[in-house]
C-alpha cells in the first residue's frame, strides 16, 4: 500500500488528482502528522477533534440520548426554563455569533426568545454542516437574518477579520458569543483562557458571552456519563482508531483496545483512554508504535468546573460574570459574561 504522501505524488504524476482530492489529501496529511506526533509522546494521545467524522457525530448524538449522559438534556432544560431571563439580560438588537454550528436545537431555544435580534452568525469549519444547520434555522425562524460564515475558529487571524467586519452601533447594540455544550471543557484551562481571550479582544466593552459549562459532581455520576451501560461512548472512543484505519494507512486491532473513563479529581477532568489489552505493535504509514499491556492512549479531557472556578478563568480572559443559571441538581451551568 502507498503512504498518503506517495499517493498524492503518484496522483499528480498521472495527472489525476482533482482539487477535491487534493484538499482531502492535505487534510489527511495533517491528520497523519497529528496522529504520529500524539502517539510518539511518553503518554500516547490523540486529538479529540478527530472524533467527529460522520460516524462519530452520529455516535455523539446517540450518547446525548443515553440516560447516563445528563449534559445535553440538562443544558436544554436550562434554556427552556430561563431563555426569557437570558434574553432580558442580552437586550434588543443583538448580533448572536456561534463558533461551531452543531447545536441547532440549543440556539433555537434562545433565538425563540431574543428581542429583535439583528442576526445570527453560525461559524463552522465545515461548509456542509453550516449549510444544513442554517437551512433548518431559516425555516424555523424566517424573520431572523441567518448569516453563516465558514471559518476555523481556532485561527486567530480569520476570527479577527470576521469580527472587524461585523456591523456596529446603532444597528447592533451588542455582539454576543454563544458557546454551549461545555465544549470549553475540552480545552486545558490555560488554552481555554487564550481561546476566550481571543474573543474578548475582538469584542467591545459591554458585548457578551453566553456559555454552557458542566459542573463538578459525584465521581459515580460523572464516570457513568462517559461510560454508558449500552457501550455507545465506548464505541465513540474506539471509532477514533477505526477512523485512523479507514483514512490513514494503518491497522489498529479495535478489539484489543478497551474504553476507560475516569474522573481525575486533582485536575477536575474526565479523562477518556483506550487501553491496550496486550503487548502489541501498530503500524501507521512508515511508523511503528509499541504498546505495553495496559498502556493507554489518552483521547479526551472534559474539564468540570465550579461556577466560581469558571468565572475566575473567564476573568483572566477579560470577562465579568453577570448571571448564572443552573438546573435544580446543580449539574450544569449557563453563564452570561460581559466584556470588560
Ligand atoms: C461535546 C466535548 C461536550 O466532553 O462531554 C461526550 C464530548 N465525550 N462523551 C463532553 C463527549 C464523551 C462532550 N463534548
Summarize the SSE layout with pairings.
Blueprint: H1 4-13, H2 19-39, H3 54-64, H4 70-90, E1 94-99, H5 104-111, E2 119-124, H6 127-140, E3 149-150, H7 156-164, E4 174-179, H8 189-202, E5 208-214, H9 219-225, H10 232-247, E6 257-264, E7 269-276, E8 280-284, E9 287-291, E10 296-303, H11 307-316, E11 319-326, E12 332-339
Parallel strand pairs: 1-2, 1-4, 2-3, 4-5
Antiparallel strand pairs: 5-12, 6-7, 7-10, 8-9, 11-12
Q: Give the proportion of residues in helices.
A: 40-55%
Largest sheet: 7 strands, mixed
Count every beta strand, where a strand is a DSSP E run of 2 or more residues.
12
Report strand order across the widest sheet. Answer: 3-2-1-4-5-12-11
Name the structural class: alpha/beta
Radius of gyration over C-alpha positions, nearest whole angstrom: 21 Å
In what range is the share of β-strand residues? 15-25%
Mean pLDDT: 92
Low-confidence stretches: 1-17
User: What count of helical segments does DSSP give?
Assistant: 11
Question: What is the terminal-to-terminal distance?
Answer: 56 Å
- Secondary-structure element pattern, one letter each: HHHHEHEHEHEHEHHEEEEEHEE
Given the C-alpha coordinates, what overall shape results?
globular
Bound molecules: N,N,N-trimethyl-histidine
Amino acid at each position: 500500500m502507498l503512504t498518503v504522501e506517495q499517493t498524492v505524488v503518484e496522483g499528480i504524476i498521472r495527472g489525476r488528482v482533482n482539487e477535491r482530492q487534493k484538499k482531502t489529501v492535505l487534510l489527511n496529511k495533517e491528520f497523519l502528522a497529528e496522529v504520529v506526533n500524539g502517539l510518539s509522546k511518553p503518554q500516547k494521545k490523540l486529538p479529540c477533534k478527530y472524533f467527529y467524522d460522520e460516524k462519530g457525530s452520529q455516535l455523539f448524538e446517540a450518547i446525548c440520548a443515553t440516560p447516563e449522559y445528563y449534559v445535553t438534556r440538562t443544558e436544554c432544560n436550562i434554556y427552556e426554563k430561563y431563555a426569557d431571563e437570558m434574553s432580558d439580560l442580552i437586550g434588543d438588537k443583538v448580533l448572536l455569533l456561534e463558533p461551531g454550528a452543531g447545536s441547532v436545537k440549543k440556539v433555537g431555544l434562545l433565538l425563540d426568545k431574543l428581542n429583535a435580534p439583528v442576526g445570527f452568525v453560525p461559524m463552522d469549519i465545515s461548509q456542509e454542516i453550516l449549510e444544513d444547520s442554517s437551512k433548518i434555522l431559516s425555516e424555523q425562524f424566517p424573520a431572523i437574518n441567518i448569516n453563516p460564515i465558514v471559518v476555523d475558529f481556532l485561527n486567530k487571524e480569520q476570527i479577527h477579520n470576521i469580527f472587524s467586519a461585523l456591523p456596529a452601533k446603532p444597528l447592533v447594540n451588542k455582539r454576543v458569543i454563544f458557546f454551549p455544550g461545555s465544549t470549553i471543557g475540552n480545552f486545558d484551562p490555560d488554552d481555554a483562557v487564550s481561546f476566550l481571550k481571543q474573543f474578548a479582544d475582538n469584542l467591545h466593552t459591554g458585548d457578551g458571552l453566553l456559555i454552557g459549562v458542566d459542573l463538578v459532581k459525584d465521581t459515580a455520576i460523572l464516570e457513568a456519563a462517559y461510560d454508558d451501560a449500552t457501550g455507545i461512548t465506548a464505541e465513540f472512543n474506539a471509532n477514533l482508531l477505526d477512523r485512523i484505519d479507514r483514512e490513514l494507512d494503518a491497522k489498529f486491532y479495535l478489539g484489543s483496545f478497551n474504553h476507560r473513563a475516569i474522573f481525575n479529581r486533582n485536575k477536575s477532568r474526565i479523562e477518556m483512554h483506550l487501553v491496550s489489552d496486550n503487548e502489541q505493535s501498530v503500524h501507521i504509514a512508515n511508523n511503528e508504535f509499541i504498546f505495553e499491556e495496559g498502556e493507554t492512549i489518552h483521547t479526551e479531557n472534559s474539564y468540570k468546573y465550579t461556577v466560581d472556578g469558571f468565572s475566575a478563568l473567564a476573568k483572566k480572559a477579560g470577562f465579568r460574570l453577570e448571571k448564572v443559571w443552573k438546573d435544580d441538581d446543580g449539574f450544569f451551568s449557563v453563564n452570561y459574561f460581559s466584556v470588560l
